[in-house]
């Protein structure tokens, strides 16, 4: 309305008791947890399936075998199928998220994940080949997670809350491990059995992603629940290039940036160790340390519980510690996540008692969560509006982890209970983490990279300028001739 020369702006947007960006981050988090949980269910289910008498069949010569008992090599195929699917899916979903945002691609991934999870018990009854195929589909859908985190952070996180957003959203894996093992363990020991766990997780996933579809929008500017004051907070200090969205990504320039390459190296090595520890914890506790299924389901969740809590706390601390430079904070947290964790990882295999073995594995998995304030934050701040691509590429590193980890275990261990082989697995991961951490030191920075100045328009002008110079060069040669 206008009164004299004074213009009164009426904020017709809705307001809530809490900033709506926190609603978005919560809904995004629980959906990410669902995707991770769906591929995690089988970790403890392996133990339950091997004791299921319904899997027995006549193998000939008067002997019986259980179709649900898999060799370490077969288990590596089942686990690695997720990695292969995720690698291919990461390419697809990275393009979809860059082109269309997170809302529809992420929702579609959720439905695919739910359907494939429900199908796992059915396919396991048929053959290991069919089980591997459906695990591949699960992995394909799982590929949407890091790209979704990137889009949500780029579009909804204020710059001063970047680490907080990353810490919360990237804790989805640990939360999934925390919830999944006890729930699957309860199903396994109940009258419903292990199959019901897959059906339940598939149903819950469908419900959660329907909620996401209703709540989430890709642009806070267009969301009716975001007030003008909150929008100002979200957009504060962001450049015009950051706020402008046209689906353009300077892939080559990003892939040639040294800081980004070091961030990716850290992500591949650290994620490999974290995935290996959390994925194989149930098997290690059960077969090497000798715990029961119920004890295993509890102890295997401890590392994930503390990992999630620390990751969220580190994100907040990193954003709040104003007395230190961003680079100093990155180096500090990355040293904890990779340097200190490397030594505790090596110590797992040398623990003199099984209780100390649980403690060392839990400690390692927990402190690795400090990477939210290390290479994760570095990657987001360096890449700014292109953080979704940098984080989505980390998903490919996670794919590599799902292949490298099982391959390490398969190559270095003779069986699930080979304590000596597991000791070599832990030592190898220790060495790799130390290398990654030392390489991070000279390249860590919070400054936006040069490629963040590149937009679709600047790239178009650059190409036209090159063409013009080329034409002028040809004209000069003609004149000289």
Automatic annotation (TrEMBL):
Coiled coil segments of this chain: 454-481
Record has Acyltransferase as a keyword: no
Pfam families on file: MFS_1 (PF07690)
Domain Major facilitator superfamily (MFS) profile: 29-448
CC terms in the record's Gene Ontology section: membrane
Keywords (A to Z) from UniProt: Coiled coil, Membrane, Transmembrane, Transmembrane helix
Residue spans crossing the bilayer: 22-46, 77-97, 104-124, 136-157, 164-184, 196-216, 261-285, 297-318, 330-350, 356-374, 386-405, 425-444
Compartments, record wording: Membrane
Highest taxon of source: Eukaryota
Any one GO molecular-function label of the UniProt entry: transmembrane transporter activity
Membrane topology per record: Multi-pass membrane protein
Chief location category: membrane
PANTHER family the record matches: MAJOR FACILITATOR SUPERFAMILY (MFS) PROFILE DOMAIN-CONTAINING PROTEIN, PROTEIN CBG23364-RELATED
The protein's name: Major facilitator superfamily (MFS) profile domain-containing protein
Species of provenance: Pristionchus mayeri
């Amino acid at each position: 309305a206008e009164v004299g020369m004074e213009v009164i702006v009426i904020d017709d947007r809705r307001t809530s008791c809490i900033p709506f960006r926190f609603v978005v981050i919560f809904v995004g988090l629980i959906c990410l947890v669902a995707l991770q949980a769906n591929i995690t269910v089988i970790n403890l289910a392996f133990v339950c399936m091997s004791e299921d008498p319904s899997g027995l069949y006549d193998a000939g010569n008067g002997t019986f075998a259980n179709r649900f008992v898999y060799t370490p090599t077969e288990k590596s195929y089942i686990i690695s199928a997720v990695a292969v699917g995720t690698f291919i899916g990461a390419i697809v979903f990275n393009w979809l998220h860059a082109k269309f945002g997170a809302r529809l691609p992420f929702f579609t991934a959720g439905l695919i994940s739910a359907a494939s999870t429900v199908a796992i018990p059915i396919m396991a009854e048929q053959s290991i080949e069919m089980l591997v195929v459906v695990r591949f589909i699960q992995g394909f859908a799982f590929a949407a997670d890091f790209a979704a985190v990137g889009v949500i952070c780029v579009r909804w996180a204020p710059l001063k809350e970047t680490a907080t957003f990353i810490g919360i959203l990237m804790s989805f894996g640990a939360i999934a491990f925390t919830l999944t093992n006890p729930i699957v363990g309860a199903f396994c020991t109940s009258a419903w059995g292990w199959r019901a766990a897959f059906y339940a997780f598939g149903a819950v996933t469908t419900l959660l992603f329907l909620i996401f579809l209703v709540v989430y929008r890709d642009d806070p500017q267009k969301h009716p629940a975001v007030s003008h004051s909150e929008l100002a907070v979200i957009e504060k200090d962001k450049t015009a290039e950051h706020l402008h969205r046209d689906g353009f990504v300077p892939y080559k320039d990003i892939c040639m940036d040294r800081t980004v390459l070091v961030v990716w190296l850290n992500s591949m090595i650290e994620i490999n160790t974290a995935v290996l520890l959390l994925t194989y914890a149930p098997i290690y506790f059960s077969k090497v340390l000798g715990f029961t299924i119920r004890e295993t389901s509890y102890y295997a969740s401890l590392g994930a519980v503390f990992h999630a809590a620390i990751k969220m706390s580190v994100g907040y601390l990193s954003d709040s510690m104003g007395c230190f430079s961003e680079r100093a904070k990155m180096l500090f947290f990355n040293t904890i996540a990779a340097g200190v964790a490397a030594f505790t990882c090596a110590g797992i295999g040398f623990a003199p008692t099984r209780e100390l073995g649980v403690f060392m594995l839990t400690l390692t998995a927990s402190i690795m969560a400090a990477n939210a304030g290390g290479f994760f934050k570095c990657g987001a701040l360096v890449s700014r509006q292109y953080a979704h691509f940098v984080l989505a590429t980390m998903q490919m590193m996670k794919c590599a982890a799902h292949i490298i980890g099982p391959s390490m275990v398969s190559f270095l261990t003779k069986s699930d209970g080979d304590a000596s082989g597991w000791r070599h697995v832990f030592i190898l991961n220790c060495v790799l983490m130390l290398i990654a951490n030392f390489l991070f030191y000279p390249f860590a920075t919070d400054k936006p990279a040069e490629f963040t100045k590149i937009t679709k328009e600047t790239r178009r002008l650059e190409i036209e300028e090159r063409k013009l110079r080329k034409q002028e060069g040809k004209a000069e040669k003609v004149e000289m001739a």
